[in-house]
Amino acid sequence: MLKNKKVLIAGLLTFITLAVAVAGINIYIIASQHKKIISRDEASRLTDVDYVVVLGCGIRGDKPTHMLEDRLLEGIAVADLNKDCKLLLTGDNSGVSYNEVAVMKNFCLEKGFDESRIVTDDFGFSTGESIENVNNKFEGNKIIIITQVYHTFRALFIAESLDMDAYAVPSSPRKYSTWLYNNTREPLARVKDFIKYF
Fold first, then answer.
1. pLDDT of residue 195
2. In what order do the strands lie in the sheet with 142-147?
3. What whole-number distance in Å separates Cα of residue 135 and Cα of residue 159?
4. What is the dihedral of CA 184, 34, 198, 70, to 10 degrees?
5. Is domain 2-197 in CATH 3.30.450.40, yes or no?
6. What is the pLDDT of residues 39-91, one digit of tens each?
7. Which of 28, 85, 106, 128 is the most buried (most CB within 10 A)?
8. Annotated domain spans of the chain
9. Which pLDDT value is given to residue 11?
């Protein structure tokens, strides 16, 4: 009986420690990055921007998901206000049946965006890989990241860890069916990337 009680207490203390660590990391990432989240108007006043970076987040056939559509629309709008930079589309190109980046590019072209200003990254299989590719492969330093609000903090944290001058314009004009999943998963993803990039 005493042994079972000790095991229970040890398990409870472990759980509390992990919960405090997860909460602490999330608070740190959000608090350290929230000032870099700016409006479209503020983004238009930035100078020497290398890329407006749209992070991929899923397609359905040859169409972007609602979340990705909103990111693309915001990315186009911000890039239109920053004429000297490129629009960098980064996502998962796993093969013929799933080419997120091709769908993203086609969407932008259908909206009338100048193809000569579009750059694509087919190897953005995660947030971290996308930001790393912008920095290493495309030599981007000053960037504006386009993603939903919940995701901006982690993307900015990763960019800061790579010594990039990064800002984010959130694209969240509607509530998504995956809202609960995204906001449940994201705190754990922040912990994962905190461990990797801190």
1. 97
2. 118-121, 86-90, 51-55, 142-147, 165-170
3. 8
4. 60
5. no
6. 999 999 999 999 999 999 999 999 999 999 999 999 999 999 999 999 999 99
7. 85
8. 2-197
9. 82
